[in-house]
């Protein structure tokens, strides 16, 4: 790519300080972070919530940027080519796609969006594609999987150049397909514009991210964009049991529906739900598939239907669908059972961090609990505050014991966050059950208390952080792993039990 190609691809471009000689300069990279610009880069200045990237153009130029793409006019002191555009984010996405030679047109890329279930659905579908011989790369909340390499994910869907770079690396490492979670932030901020999706999946829509989206309609409009991007050949896989599903059917040209309660193209036969996993028949227009999975709970039935419907629509053999679902042992931080047969209690770690996800988690766990259900959870700081009392209400209604603690408090006072959670816990919210409610600010202490106070055959849910290996407190990012903390507490419980015998 040369600078002339950049000018040609920037939407609504008007350029300043561009001469014939400069347009032939080769472009080394498309950059959006002035601190990481390499020599020969084109720097795209994005408008953020707090600052305009154009303010950092001088820094980018000092590091070797040969041109700047920005929404604002060229400052007088800038001498490198300045390409003005009405939408720098769209320009970044289109330039990144072109710079990396459109990897989404060189292998099928499936996008998964929705509030809950994206990660598990992506893992299921990647396992199915692997079973079909279509080795799948994965990009999502837990990690980025590139061939045999697993990288920690900085965000669910990174900025456009990072998306395109990762897809290109997947191809270079032998991947023949890719599954990526597509967040509402990414869709609203145009990080995947210009891509071709071989299929799009909608899992559900519940309250979340209202610290970023003005309201639920804006949140849904962002999700809908994925389906508006699909071409006539690409199926849109839609959960029609979700109230928003029906309107998405009209957003794409090839809808394929799934569900348990509404008429759909892909449905489930009799379900057997147990702590050891799921057994069901998946009924598709191409035939029925006998499924056995080590995943737990009714929400995972939906995830299996979503993955199976997508694979079926992409002509993956039905046998590979069954094999792929069965081969998946589990998903990090998604109903992850961390206790063992040697323990007298069951401890589950889960990422549930919205009121709907917490409700689904506890409704899954409730019938599996031989005795009491103990729930440990918190709410993140600097995020949607309206869900805090709702999560408190749900936890108190469905648990025997609730321990409210810190999640990632960030810049907020964790004790104040806990108080806002407790506002949702009223006698009416607890129903017939008299729920014990405790507040323990330190998350490690909260998990320890739950495991110490539990009686034999109690089931403990540790919710909110799941796979995360850190905790954000103020401006510090500290190592913290719910799984490791719970396992350590279980080991101490076993020692106490051994001494008592």
Number of domains: 3
* CATH class call of the largest domain: Alpha Beta
On the 0 to 100 scale, the average pLDDT is 94
> What is the molecular shape?
globular
Number of strands: 25
User: What is the share of helical residues?
Assistant: 25-40%
CATH topology value of the largest domain: UDP-N-acetylmuramoyl-L-alanine:D-glutamate ligase
What's the name of the CATH homologous superfamily of the largest domain?
Answer: Mur-like, catalytic domain
How many helices? The count is: 15
Largest sheet, in brief, is:
8 strands, mixed
Weakly predicted, low-confidence segments: none
User: In whole angstroms, how far apart are the ends?
Assistant: 73 Å
Radius of gyration over alpha carbons?
A: 24 Å
Topology:
Layout: H1 3-9, E1 14-16, E2 29-31, E3 41-44, H2 57-62, E4 67-70, E5 82-84, H3 88-99, E6 109-113, H4 118-131, E7 136-139, E8 143-146, E9 149-152, H5 160-172, E10 177-181, H6 184-188, E11 199-202, H7 216-228, E12 236-239, H8 245-249, E13 255-258, E14 267-268, E15 272-274, E16 277-284, E17 287-293, H9 298-313, H10 318-327, E18 336-337, E19 346-350, H11 355-365, E20 373-377, H12 387-398, E21 401-404, H13 414-422, E22 436-439, H14 443-453, E23 459-463, E24 470-473, E25 476-479, H15 482-500
Parallel strand pairs: 2-3, 3-4, 4-5, 6-10, 6-11, 7-10, 11-12, 12-13, 19-23, 20-21, 20-23, 21-22
Antiparallel strand pairs: 1-5, 7-8, 8-9, 14-16, 15-16, 16-17, 18-19, 24-25
């Amino acid at each position: 790519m040369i600078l002339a190609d950049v000018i040609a691809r920037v939407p609504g471009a008007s350029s300043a300080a561009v001469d014939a000689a400069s347009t032939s300069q080769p472009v080394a990279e498309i950059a959006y972070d002035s601190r990481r610009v390499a020599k020969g880069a084109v720097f795209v200045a994005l408008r953020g919530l707090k600052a305009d990237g154009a303010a950092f153009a001088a820094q980018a130029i000092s590091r070797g940027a040969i041109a700047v793409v920005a929404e604002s006019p060229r400052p007088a002191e800038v001498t490198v080519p300045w390409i003005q555009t009405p939408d720098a984010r769209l320009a970044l996405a289109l330039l990144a796609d072109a710079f990396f030679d459109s990897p989404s047109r060189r292998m099928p890329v499936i996008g998964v969006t929705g509030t809950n279930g994206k990660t598990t659905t992506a893992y299921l579908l990647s396992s199915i594609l692997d079973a079909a011989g279509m080795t799948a790369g994965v990009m999502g909340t837990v990690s980025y999987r590139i061939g045999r390499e697993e990288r920690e994910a900085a965000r669910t869907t990174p900025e456009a150049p990072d998306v395109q770079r990762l897809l290109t690396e997947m191809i270079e490492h032998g991947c023949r397909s890719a599954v990526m979670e597509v967040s509402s932030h990414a869709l609203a901020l145009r990080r995947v514009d210009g891509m071709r999706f071989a299929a799009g999946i909608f899992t559900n829509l519940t309250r979340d991210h209202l610290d970023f989206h003005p309201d639920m309609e804006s949140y849904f409009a962002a999700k809908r964009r994925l389906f508006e991007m699909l071409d006539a050949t690409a199926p849109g896989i839609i959960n029609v049991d979700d109230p928003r599903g029906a309107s998405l059917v009209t957003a794409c040209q090839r809808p394929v529906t799934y569900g348990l309660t509404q008429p759909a193209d892909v449905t489930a036969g009799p379900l057997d739900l147990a702590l050891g996993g799921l057994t069901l028949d998946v009924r598709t227009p191409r035939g029925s598939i006998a499924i056995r999975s080590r995943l737990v709970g009714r929400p995972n039935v939906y995830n299996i239907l979503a993955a199976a419907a997508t694979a079926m629509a992409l002509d993956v053999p039905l046998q590979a669908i069954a094999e792929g679902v069965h081969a998946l042992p589990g998903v990090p931080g998604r109903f992850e059972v961390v206790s063992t047969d040697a323990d007298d209690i069951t401890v589950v770690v889960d990422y549930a961090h919205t009121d709907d996800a917490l409700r689904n988690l506890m409704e899954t766990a409730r019938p599996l609990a031989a005795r009491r259900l103990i729930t440990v959870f918190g709410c993140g700081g600097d995020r949607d505050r309206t869900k805090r009392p709702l999560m408190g209400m749900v936890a108190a209604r469905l648990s025997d014991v609730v321990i409210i603690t810190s999640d990632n408090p960030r810049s907020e006072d964790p004790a104040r966050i806990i108080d806002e959670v407790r506002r949702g816990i009223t006698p009416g919210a607890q129903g017939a059950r008299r729920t014990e409610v405790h507040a323990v600010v330190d998350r490690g202490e909260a998990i320890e208390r739950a495991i110490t106070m539990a009686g034999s055959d109690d089931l403990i849910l540790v919710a909110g952080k799941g796979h995360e290996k850190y905790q954000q407190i103020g401006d510090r990012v500290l190592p913290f792993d719910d799984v490791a903390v719970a396992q350590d507490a279980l080991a101490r419980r076993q020692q106490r039990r051994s001494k008592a015998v």
